[in-house]
Amino acid sequence: MQGLTADLIRGMWYVACPGRDLRPGKFITKKLMNEPVLIGRKSDGSVFALRDICPHRGIPLSYGHFDGTTLACSYHGWRFDGAGTCVDIPSLREGQQVDLTKIRCGNFACTESQGVVWIYFPQKAETPSEGGYPAPPLMPDFAGAAAPKFHIMLPFTCSTDHAAFGLMDPTHAAFVHTSWWFKKQASKLRPKEKSFAPSELGWSMVRHRLPPQNIAYRLLGTEVTTEITYRLPGFRIENIRGERHQATGLTALTPNDESNTEVHQFFWISAGWAGGLRPLFEHLMRVFLDQDRLVVIRQREGLLHEPRLMMVNDADTQARWWARIKDSYLAAQKSGTAFANPLEPMTLRWRS
Ligand code: FES
Ligand SMILES: [Fe+2]
């Protein structure tokens, strides 16, 4: 749990990329969950995800040509549709019968919701029920068609566990996030007390009022409240409600493999003017997240020596919860039983 690698959780939706990264007729490739994945958008606007390996001789399909409907392999020109089924073998002559529908490169369930492209990585031998896999999580206060105003992604050279610990770590900000615009001084730590309660596949910091001096949140109107939810397989969802506007932030961890993780940050804001702030906000988000990225690069130097690590109350209690939830979820999957959230409501106190 605490080392260089982490168990990957299958049977879950993961963030692949923001929808804006996929123009019609284009595709991108990534290693996600240890699999080579090709994610594309057809000319009709729909998104799809294929295993990026040609079943003929194994060359990545991404070297081939995508015409907006089918993808032709670069080696012998076999063509595959968005469902991963072969639709043409150019070398075949009349009378040479091959059942093309039996030739598949493998695909992943892929959907676009709220401007985010999601991919489902099933468990071994898992097949979707008639209605498909359960839908990916919906961001509160925003409709299915609402695209995020801001997005950034940075690759972290750490397992999802350490990326998750960073997400839910309430006490590193004063030491790590020390920009002029986010001033926190380690010498001025203040006592904090927050209530938590179990929620779906994780827990939530119960909705509470933000201090009025918080400028970013004041843009949303007076009486601003926030709720922060953490859940498997690595999401932090912060929902901020003001009298004038609402904002929801999603930080999503997508494993490339057991020891590398993509960290995505999205922001939906109901205020129309927020779009104009995109260059500034995305720059600030990147500076902030890059500070976390630098920490895990340095942390790796120590983890290579496999140290025994520690957790202290209450600052690391959420990291403990992460470990408990993940272990019980994986155990339930293994035994084929229903997952029961092992957490109980609790108030945590720390200094930050
Ligand atoms: S290797 Fe892809 S068509 Fe032959
Ligand atoms: Fe951080």
From TrEMBL:
The lineage of its organism: Bacteria, Pseudomonadati, Pseudomonadota, Alphaproteobacteria, Hyphomicrobiales. This is (2Fe-2S)-binding protein. PANTHER family: 3-KETOSTEROID-9-ALPHA-MONOOXYGENASE, OXYGENASE COMPONENT (PTHR21266:SF60), IRON-SULFUR DOMAIN CONTAINING PROTEIN (PTHR21266). Keywords: 2Fe-2S, Iron, Iron-sulfur, Metal-binding, Oxidoreductase. The keyword Metal-binding applies. Residues 14-119 form the Rieske domain. It comes from Candidatus Raskinella chloraquaticus. One of its GO terms (molecular function) is 2 iron, 2 sulfur cluster binding.
